[in-house]
Amino acid sequence: MTLKTMTLTAIVALSSAAAVAEEVRVYNWSDYIDEDLLEKFETETGIDLIYDVFDSNELLETKMLAGGSGYDVVVPTGSFLARQIQAGAFQKLDASKLSNAGNMWDVIEDRTARYDPGNLYSVNYMWGTTGIGANTAKVEEALGADAPIDSLELVFNPENMEKLANCGVYFLDAPDEMIPAALKYIGEDPNSMDPDVVAKAEPVLMAIRPYVKKFHSSEYINALANGDICVAFGWSGDILQARDRADEADNGVEIVFNAPKEGALMWFDQMAIPVDAPNPEGAHKFLNFIMEAENMAAASNYVYYANGNKASQEFLEEDVIGDPAIYPSEETLKNLYIKEAYPPKVQRKATRMWTKIKSGT
Ligand code: N2P
């Protein structure tokens, strides 16, 4: 063997060693983690972490139902998780690999059991509410000092929306959240599975459609923070992140979040392992890492969402655990509603309605 071929052999050996280095692929919501935690996981475990993001349950669901996503950990919202469990998209968690399970909060586990009975397939990552982000100065300029910034009136009353259209309103591109909110506004059950009730959301949404600048589920953070829009109907922590980005930029923009006083959706995002995950062992390591009290607290402190980890609470910053917009009081909790998965027929109706609303015709 010549020196040249020996070197080549060595190179091949090296690169194949690199190719078999352990990898974990995680698919989580955008703006939903402190990126230092990703590096910490790699340093502690020696595993390469591939971390991709999405901003739509529908998109994630398409991947989960098709199979072969290549992900080891994904994070659907409870109502979507329930349907995907039934479709056989996930594997049962191996409790023997989750030594931090005792850190979880029974109050939240009781609630997530509605979507995943016995919490056999999933662990709560974060939970929150869907509500109104407002640029107070701009909204008051458009509607006066008594603008209903904590009410569904702000975004579903066409008279208000017409006046807000100029400063810019974004809505989530999330039919399973916007339809229930519209139903709540007209006094219907937001969790109704009755197609005739669901249909009542359409005229409500159509009436304000001309005044919605964009349906998008992540761009509103920067749009609010930069002062490009004055209202977003979006997720609690995202709007609080917008508030902070504006503070950091010191641009004079002041953002507040309010859960609508008529009632707000409370949702739970659950970490789960796809049935065909390439590395379920590594997936459990990632879950157990996130379930460590200090890691979970670091994530919540960064993204302003509450989590389902009781032990993390002593490590939460006061502006997180002490903020009722993040950890609601008993009083507010009573005013929150939940959403279950629509049966297929109603889901198809909701999807068609949403396409129509977004196109505005
Ligand atoms: C994070 C959004 C997570 C909330 N940007 C959606 N359930």
TrEMBL record:
It is found in: Periplasm. SUPFAM superfamilies: Periplasmic binding protein-like II (SSF53850). It holds the Pfam family SBP_bac_8. It comes from the Bacteria. Residues 1-21 form the signal peptide. Keywords: Periplasm, Signal, Transport. Its main location: periplasm. Required for the activity of the bacterial periplasmic transport system of putrescine. Belongs to the bacterial solute-binding protein PotD/PotF family. This is Putrescine-binding periplasmic protein. It comes from Phaeobacter piscinae. The gene is potF.
